Amino acid sequence: MLKPFKLFYMAVWRNFLTLTRYKANFFFSILTSALFGLGSLIFALALDASLLERTVGSTNYVAFFIFGVCFQSWQGTALWGASSMFQNELGSGQIDYTFSCPFSRYWYIVSNIAASALQDTIFFVPMFSVGLSLTQSTVTPLGVALGLAATAVSVASLAQLGAIFGALTLRYRQVTAIFGFFNFAFQLLTGMFVPFQLLPMPLRIIGYGLPMTFGMDLLRHYVMGTNPILPVGFEWALLFTQLMILAVIAKLTVLYLERVAKEQGLHYI
Amino acid sequence: MAESVLCDRILKVYNGRGKKVQALDGVSLAVREGEFFGLLGPNGAGKTTLVRILATLLKTTEGYAEVGGYDVDKQENEVRNIIGYAGQDSERSAYFRLTVNENLLYFAHTLRDVPLKTARERIEEIASAVGFADRLDRHFITLSGGEKQLVIVMRAILHNPKVCFLDEPSKSLDPVTARQVRDFLKEYARENGMTLVLTTHNMIEAEEVCDRIAFINHGRLRFLGTTKEFKRRVTVKEVIEIGMNKLNSNVESSLRELPGVSDLAYRPNARLYCDDAFDILPEVIDIMRHSSVKASVRMVEPSLEDAFALFVNGEKVMVNA
């Protein structure tokens, strides 16, 4: 069995080479990221700062919004990266070669998501920097480190969901709509654009189960000084618990769906 | 000699949209270690399904298969460790914006665990042997279909597998490159003791390369043996070739009515299959003379392609396993 770390760093190497070969696309990806950051400044004008202060203890809606949008870039990669990779491999026929090789499918998927997430850091950084520049009064190096650590754990949990989506692609090939549904639900239910505390109780109950909710909340708490949804220690514990549970489910799902896909043949799906 | 591949009564049924399709029906065969083995049969015969089962990409519905002594269903990773695989229509199955060298390096080192240094050496060695060394730095997307296919074949053997499955490897190769690849594979396999299982429609390939062949039709094994045996078992004794790729219908029907003639086909010249070519040759010439058809007429040995075509076309000629 191959080492997960090698799968990861070779995937980074391959992705980086491919990325640099599509220069226009690379340039516009960075441009889009910057534009998103600037666009959020305009969007923030329409928001009620006093309501935000009463809810999360900060009037800095722009930063609140930007740190939510930052998560969106991670979320897209984590949820969609593996599905997209498998769709490409199914389309080109590469999946047959890939699946005739001796490695853990689970680690292959997770390593590739991690490689894509690392690649997206390039686009995340400008947006995150805009957010930091707006939180100079509250930001500390330790706060940034802890906020990013919470983000990393949260993204790792999302990657497990990504592995499930990736495996679903093996079975159903086209899972765009499923991804779109969850992506939209995640945006609504995790407090990305609207404070989580303002959501109705039934939606909040679902939101507690989503890995982004606490990652995003902890990032804002450490960087912006917002009031956390739950006690900080409890949120960390829940983040790690979610990661472990999702990892087990993802691993079993990948195993199961590969078995199912093999009934009909990967290329026929 | 030990068995490298073993299939025992393999049955494969696809369930799609409420319809069951039986792709394989009780196929049993054994491939010896170091053997060049060809799977022949018309489109949809079940060849690719069998290769996919052996390459751990597909599960059997019933039956047992092993590669290198490992059960393909229960010991998948052990099987994957010792096999190489190049699928059918897989000429797009690499990273378009990476060079040939980068692609091969990625697949060999990442997915096959070949050390970087060894991978680099093997890429050079194999590329030189198949005349590809000058194109290693080209982006995969810029290669022709045949060149891409060649890269895929190179990828299949980079890690020096014990058993290699190639599904129609020369499909999009030009005749010169196809021959070069065949010669290389044959030499490489002999030197490294690699067992090669390939599916093909290319009769020249099967005849030149394969030690033995299996003929599959409608999911069933119909023949297992050497190409010579295959041809010998075809009950057509002789063939008369007429140097025209189309005869008029009157000539055609007159020829078909001659005693002992079993069929007339164009491959691409007209070929008349009969029991005794010498006996009917004067009559063939007479028919042509009366119809003012001027073309060369000669008696030829039935080729493997004749046997294949006759066997597939309604199985007029029986070739038994």
Explain this structure.
The complex is a heterodimer of chains A (269) and B (321). By secondary structure, chain A is mainly α. Chain A has one domain. Chain A has helices at 4-21, 23-44, 49-56, 61-92, 94-98, 105-133, 141-172, 176-189, 201-208, 211-224, 232-264. In chain A, helix 2 (23-44) packs antiparallel against helix 4 and helix 10 (211-224) packs antiparallel against helix 11. Chain A is globular and about 55 Å long. The model of chain A has no long low-confidence stretch (mean pLDDT 81). Chain B has 321 residues and is an alpha/beta fold. Chain B has two domains: 3-226, 3-Layer(aba) Sandwich (Rossmann fold); 237-301, Alpha-Beta Plaits (2-Layer Sandwich). In chain B, a hairpin with a 2-residue loop joins strand 1 and strand 2 (19-32). The radius of gyration of chain B is 23 Å and the shape is globular. At the A-B interface, helix 1, helix 5 and helix 11 of A face strand 1, helix 2, strand 6 and helix 3 of B.
Draw up the topology in text.
The complex is a heterodimer of chains A (269) and B (321).
Chain A: H1 4-21, H2 23-44, H3 49-56, H4 61-92, H5 94-98, H6 105-133, H7 141-172, H8 176-189, H9 201-208, H10 211-224, H11 232-264
Helix pairs in contact in A: 1-6, 2-4, 2-6, 4-6, 4-7, 4-10, 6-7, 7-10, 7-11, 10-11
Chain B: E1 3-16, E2 19-32, E3 36-40, H1 47-54, E4 62-67, E5 70-71, H2 76-82, E6 83-86, H3 100-111, H4 116-129, H5 145-157, E7 163-167, H6 175-192, E8 195-200, H7 203-209, E9 212-217, E10 220-225, H8 227-233, E11 238-242, H9 249-256, E12 261-266, E13 270-274, H10 277-290, E14 297-300, H11 304-312
Parallel strand pairs in B: 3-8, 3-9, 6-7, 7-8
Antiparallel strand pairs in B: 1-2, 1-4, 4-5, 9-10, 11-13, 11-14, 12-13
Q: From the structure provided, what is the oligomeric state, counting identical versus distinct chains?
A: heterodimer
User: Termini separation of chain B (Å)?
Assistant: 21 Å
As a percent range, the share of strand residues of chain A is under 5%
Let me know the CATH homologous superfamily of the largest domain in chain B: P-loop containing nucleotide triphosphate hydrolases
Helix count of chain B equals: 11
